[in-house]
Amino acid sequence: MLFGQAGRERRITDEQLKRLIEELGAAMNDSLSESEQIAGVIAKIRAGGYDVFPVLNATITIKKREEEPVRRAVRTNDGVESRFNAQDIKFLKSMHISTDK
Length: 101
Known about the structure:
Helix content is about 40%, strand content about 10%.
């Protein structure tokens, strides 16, 4: 999703999504190629008499978010209310965090 005015989400087309995924891949590649730490390690390997041919595979999983209602609202003792959807609750449970009081 991209954000329009006032932070509202708007749907993106499949073509836009494809372009954004390509941009993400290019940004990741640029980030790695500009890394001084990676360049330093490669230089050490080359200094040891080896050629280096880095090949990285990245799997990017994209799942369309479902519009789902809030499943649970929790109010703390100081009056702060948090709203959790099913995905939030599943994640919290995987971290052994309960939303029950």
